[in-house]
User: Fold this.
Amino acid sequence: MKILLDNGLPVQAYSIVLYYEIIGGDSHRSRGAGEGRLDDREVFVPDKEKATRVDVIDRIWGFFTSLRLVIVLLLVLSLLSVAGTIIEQNKPLQEYYRLFRPETVEMFLKLGLLDMYHSWWFTSCLALLALNIIACTMERYPSIMKGLKTPNVVLDEKIEKGLKDPAKIKYHLPAETVEKRVADLVKKIFPARPVITETEDARHFFYEKGRYTRLSFLLTHLSILIIFIGAIVGSIFGFKGYVNINEGETVSTLQTRKGENKALNFGVRCNSFNADYYETGAPKDYRSDLSVIRDGKEVLRQTIRVNDPLTYEGITFYQSSFGALPDNVTFEIRGKNDASQSTVVAPVGKQVDIPGGGIRIEVADYREHFHFPDGSEAGTAIGVNIFRPDAEPEGVWIYEAHPERNSHFGYAFEVKGVKLRKFTGLQVNKDPGVWAVWTGCIMMVAGIMMAFFTSHKKLWIRIGKDRKGRVELTAGGMANKNKYAFSSETARLFDRFREVT
Amino acid sequence: MSNSLLFGISIFVYFFSMVLYVSYLAFRSEGLGKVATLTLLSGALVETAALLLRWYESYAMGIGRAPLTNLYESLVFFALTIAVFYLLMEWKFKIKTVGAFVTPFPFIIMAYASLNPNEIQPLVPALKSNWLIAHVVTCFVGYAAFAVSFGVSVLYLFKVKAENKPGGKRGVLQEYLPPSELLDEIGYKAIAIGFPLLTIGIITGAFWANVAWGTYWSWDPKETWSLIVWLIYAAYLHARITRGWRGEKAALLSILGFAATLFCYLGVNLILSGLHSYGGKS
Assistant:
């Protein structure tokens, strides 16, 4: 059974042509015999002398331009990447010790498996890929540039020989009429005007479309290099950091992920932070009202949200987290013996006297969801250091919801109120390489689209006279990809030429 | 909820279309084939209506968001894209017999989706972005293309194996399947469409991550697996275009690629942890 494709061609024939269809197959040595006949100016003919001279450079060059290297690298990179998703990366060391035996963790550390995407061996694979891309691009460059040059616009014998199924049609019409009718028919496929050349015995019309598609190889492959460059620039000249800003406070230094302190040329003030919730309790919106302060003056004010950061002088602030810390805690403290009662407001981190007792307290910690040693829920707990005369200071937990557990050193504590201060947590980022990355991405998409969906189509028409003096039209087309579809398209066009009367 | 009713109907319609495609393979009646195609088409239409209704309902609830944000919604969308992508391929290449190998996907995926919670939940702040639709749609149409390529590749291997059996007669069924060259070709064409879409999907995801978190690439398991999928199909395309790998080797790579795709889509969420919140762990 023969199945016909939409272009009316039997499948068997179709599949042979496919071998050579996309991205041109027009440079690699591994091509089968006979292919590439259509566009023989681009066939790669290995210089025999050069091929027999086996020196080191040739070998290295051969290694870097071989298809095997590409395939092996792509598959090795994917296999290595799998390892990195199985062993979670960049966790605190304690977690690995909890999950694995100490020897295993030591081994992972030695092999760089805990930060494998930045390990020397993973980076080397990426570098090898980059070299491979550079070598292949250099190897292909001449033939790409050749394809981009204006081809021969005259349909001479040499080109005619290379054409597949050229049409030869004779007319009993004046040459001008044929020219005009044919030009109208071609317009539907090639909207651009032809290059017209007059030779001794004929007029030549050269139509062309999609020459730029020859750039697709350069675009897709260079795009990867540009993305790599962007990533390198970002990691050398940029930084990633994190900062918490209390409401109403201004900061101008932050901590980078590498643990360094980074001073900014300006300050950032958090005017307010707000979180909205849906009725179900799910978070709806987190937003911080930020001001950029320069020389004591506000130069920019903007509300940031999770998908809407603030950028100033190349440094971007992203809404990342939030929280609240107590400003001060109000206790009601009762002495056990004398039943005296007093209310004490204790600012965080400052020692305050308890009236009439000679002891002092300091609020040192605050936990919203605390657990008792037996694991049960304790609610809010406040860590308090108690200073007694002639004794070492001692830390205790005071529970907001369990006053019965709050007796220490003869005093009963009760939490009367906690004044909280909200803070916003910002991811701070400077990445001067990000534009290279986006440029590379756009190039890649454009290149892939061009590679898969466009082809360089050429059409030659010659209108002259045959030996008997009749008007004779010769026409033929060529495409660098999807050749079969194009040749059926031209075949239909030539049929219409034949109908011209 | 009326959108779930429509989704329920579409499960049955997909089931019938699968049965029809399989019986078309067995009985080879043109009429049956037409009914099979029409059933699959109506399944896709009912599902599209269900998705649109769900979108509308979310507005009625005051949430107002595209129905593409959790495991349930991504599954039903995946089923729809496979159905539509297959219908387009069938229309272009006239390959009805392949349907029996592709239509089980929409049915199984929809049936699996129905086991997941399907309430319309409001969006968490990280998902509130214009990039959501571009990212999800390109990724899933790409996945659907890979699924079709997978189905065709399996059929290819099945057919070639039967053809090469020493001394074995060519079964009637064998004669009736599309020529293996055409299967090989469709497997490739589907990838040639899926690969650019996956590329755009990864890039829109990177761009979105950069806006939301300040890093375009953080080697999160989902990102890494999407890169793995991309690398496998990139290897496939290089092998095919420059060395002319086709037939069995190409079919095996396509199957490997789809296995990685499935893991990237479901495995990462159900087994590993990361930034893409839908799925088992959160």
Q: What stands out?
A: Chain B has two domains: 1-118, 126-282. Chain B touches chain A through 59 residues (CB under 8 Å).
